[in-house]
Amino acid sequence: MLRYPGEMEYNNYETNIMSEKEITMEEVAKHNKADDCWLVIGNDKTGGPKVYDVTNYLDDHPGGAEVLLDVGGQDADEFFEDIGHSKDARDELEKHLVGTLKLDEAELKRRAEAAAKAAEKGAGGMNVMVILIAILAIVAAYYKTQM
């Protein structure tokens, strides 16, 4: 997205100018029907959660409209990422951008806890690796003394 003066964004995928918008999850939740379907997709690794209006794309979605309607009005990032969408799918998604998700205090706290838990889990894996290397070193030293 290219930025122009006046807090505007130019969407490269369409030839329109749209103002930058922050949308609450409460607002997204209202858009959960076939004639009005919004999704939240994105996370800290992908530039943050964004809101997309996929109403006009429902009939064109390769997996069928029902897949999108099942997560309409919700955070669909995990489902989107689990499928492993192509670059073309991600480019198509950008055509439907409405704005960014405004994170409230509860959501910020939830994300911080999830990040801490993930970091803790990752660090635990490293401890196991250190222990395995130490055991291998002891075994190697033992065999060397036996020769």
TrEMBL record:
Superkingdom of the source species: Eukaryota
Start and end residues of each Cytochrome b5 heme-binding domain: 20-102
GO molecular function ontology, one term from the record: metal ion binding
Entry keyword set: Heme, Iron, Membrane, Metal-binding, Transmembrane, Transmembrane helix
A Pfam family per the record: Cyt-b5
Signal peptide: none
Ranges that cross the membrane: 126-143
GO cellular component: membrane
Subcellular localization(s) per the UniProt record: Membrane
Principal cellular location given in the protein's record: membrane
Family: Belongs to the cytochrome b5 family.
PANTHER family cross-referenced by the UniProt entry: CYTOCHROME B5, CYTOCHROME B5 A
Protein name in UniProt: Cytochrome b5 heme-binding domain-containing protein
Natural source organism: Chaetoceros tenuissimus
